[in-house]
């Protein structure tokens, strides 16, 4: 029988307010996360199934305070760990590009590029931080590069990526001079296996996603055709949970069009394959966006070398993607269409469905077309078939840069104020945001902030929660308020692995049933089957024993019933 936890939560409305009471309700104030005299770099953020947000960064101090830091922020917006963050090592050195994934138990795994003095060059290190902020592996982190083959920096490892293995361990990938590497590491730091995904050619920009069966799909920029006069292409490979590559040796072609293809983005399609986006210079004049879907066997499903995202013919930049929750992807990018300040970039988006159909206009949906320049978009799913997009924006003064965001639904319609709402409008510059999802279409956003130090050096880290309706304000409700109607919320996170939360409200006492079904209508789990008082509740379904795929959860209370869809991706 599936394990479940029924947590009585006093008043969903009040809970939502209480849960966000520590977040700033003023976009000119925000929440300081990491501040000080030194600069901070390489932001990265994730959310776990319990709604905790984690952010990691590199502190550039030249003294003993330099290093990789991690902070945990509760759903309430409170710092759960030491003010300033937990440092994952204590050796002064050069760091770059930390990445992170949940450990499934309230903590995280972290990895980074590391050039400490006792090594001949850069290596990839990793660390495990428990739910209470305690370092779990050896002091100063494990040298994962050395764990791979005993070989060190002549491989020039870079660009570490992480992904939960669904069993409280982690996958780690990186690029090196001999291809793309993938390893699986247990929660105690022991190496389960490691493999060279592409054993001959140099790889860069590797990105990874779940294959839905406990394994990984990787996409990377590949140089194998340079010797024949072409430029880099995009290749991909699927590796199962035992470390065995499943597709053609060396990977399958995503795009090998003429000229340059680079910077792949990847999301699972929920059916054992993946959707992969890339920036493409095939016309020799403009970087444009293309996208391709590979099925579980690695066979391209759409037009050879990918579908073009727009028909504008303009150059794009900073193409990023999230899942649409239905086997496709939602993409956003910068593009200049001859409007704004000297033809400066604006933000656009496009959705491609599982069959390869572009769902919005042929030029994409307008996210922000304000006359001032916008840059550095990032995107996350809103859990309901749409997305929340964030960027840095110069609309207010022409000098100071601020952070703005927009939510766009599955039909490409903006849900918030036209051209976005202010996430941070503090003094000084705020730049290069990162974003992670929160429940009910909300998001948590972090960025580099110069309100204190001034100029464009010595950045602090600030953050902000933004609700699903586009506000950062806190609306307080009476403590004795009860739900006025039945409600079944969308599970969070969605897609999920291996657990997810389902919130529901009942306005009067009575028998309540909440059950999970598979796509054939067979009952998979009973989460609630009892008399409940009028209030609001949260249930966690741990689907560790369930297969990847689409599931439905149904709430029945008296004459009321409602069913919603969710996706388990292992």
Task: Give the second-level CATH assignment, the architecture of the domain at 487-568.
Answer: Sandwich
Let me know the largest β-sheet. Answer: 4 strands, antiparallel
Query: Which fold does the CATH topology of the domain at 487-568 refer to?
Result: Immunoglobulin-like
Number of helices: 2
Terminal Cα span: 19 Å
Strand order of the largest sheet: 1-38-35-34
Mean pLDDT: 87
Proportion of β residues? over 45%
What does this structure look like?
The protein has two helices and 40 strands. The chain is an all-beta fold. The protein has a domain at 487-568: Macroglobulin (MG2) domain (Immunoglobulin-like), CATH 2.60.40.1930. The strands form ten sheets. Strands 1-38-35-34 form a four-stranded antiparallel beta sheet, covered by helices on one side. A four-stranded antiparallel beta sheet has the order 2-33-32-31, with no helix packed on it. The chain is globular, with a radius of gyration of 23 Å. Mean pLDDT is 87; it is low at 1-21 and 474-480.
Question: Summed up, what is this model?
Answer:
The chain is mainly β. 2% of the residues lie in helices and 47% in strands.
